[in-house]
Design a protein that fits this description.
2 copies of one chain form a homodimer. Chain A is mainly alpha-helical. Chain A has helices at residues 9-28, 34-40, 45-51, 55-76, 84-97, 99-107, 109-114, 116-124, 126-137, 147-166, 172-185. In chain A, helix 4 packs across helix 6. Chain B binds a DNA duplex through helix 1 and helix 3.
Chain lengths: 193, 193
Amino acid sequence: MSTAPTLTAARRRTRQAIIDAAIRVLVRQRDATLADIAAAAGTSRSTLHRHFADRADLLRAAVAEALGSIVRATSDAALDRGDALQALRRLVGAYLDIGDRIRFLFEDPGLAAQHPEIAELAATEGPVVGLIERGQAAGLIAPSLSAAWIERVLWAVVFAAAEAVDDGTLARHEALSSVLDTFERGVAGPAAT
Amino acid sequence: MSTAPTLTAARRRTRQAIIDAAIRVLVRQRDATLADIAAAAGTSRSTLHRHFADRADLLRAAVAEALGSIVRATSDAALDRGDALQALRRLVGAYLDIGDRIRFLFEDPGLAAQHPEIAELAATEGPVVGLIERGQAAGLIAPSLSAAWIERVLWAVVFAAAEAVDDGTLARHEALSSVLDTFERGVAGPAAT
DNA sequence: CCAGTGTGCGACATTGATGTCGCATTCTGC
DNA sequence: GCAGAATGCGACATCAATGTCGCACACTGG
């Protein structure tokens, strides 16, 4: 049953190249043309159409890819290991590594509207909310803020950092610490560290 | 010299209605049609075209409107009055009141690319960076984070709150305190308040 | 070396948004 | 109540993106 039969290695590779290009391009140009995407993938529009019948089809695949990356990153972070803050740090690191995926997925409000899976992730995303609640129970995370709000802020700050890294405002190696400092302790007061 | 001659009151009103509708609609549907926008404005596509030659023309006007709102909000907040944190709070409140304008302006990366004014604002936005630096000098804001980063986070968190309010996740009257709590003190630790 | 698979290239019809008009109707201010 | 402005309603031409093909070339694994 574990057959990946109809897919040649080459075919799989260009398919992936197209998906990657789609995400990369669409993040910066939401109304990019299929021709643009094909070009960015180093291939032609006809080839793109050989792999994806529709624009919608490509979008679906790109969403699935991004979604998969996020789920994988979340699971890799082993949120139930160690104390909640440590886990949160691992998670942020993992998210920063797939910044473009995250931007692609959440930048466009219309995308979530057309792809139930996204809203579903946002809703079902038990892991992160669970982690936050665990942190609150342990007194490591402010109980006065709702877990949903905290998760939202987490995404927003990671998002901001990904953008900043992308446009050169923030050095890649500073991103993680900037996000964590900001997210955990806020911006008020002289640095406690 | 203070002539507003060629513009009837009625004309000005529908023009404004169209701009408002454009912002309102485009925030939720980036590829909305001019017909959609006209409908949302309670008018017809032909009337829209009577006020704005081009789609680009409308976009320009919408960007100008949003930009103006932001500049006005910033100036209304009187950033040089009182201590930096107080000023910051006034500013966040003012920004939350024009959440859709902010979302419209910064949601679409392609928009900034086509409208230099936006990038210019982001760059020139002396006031906010100035405020943050003032706060840092006074020991009220963490000096370990760059002012540019802090400003970015400020936008991001306001943005997140505006979205949350919009989709009903966050009550409007809780938005301000949520943003301030999160932004100033972060999410770590049991609530100090 | 030779099939066959994957691709590039260009042509084509289709479609939906756009921008422009003319005409009829409604609204506004005087 | 009336003139002029503002709008609504279609009809229209245009244009760019899309999706589909057929043909020819390259690459690759036997």
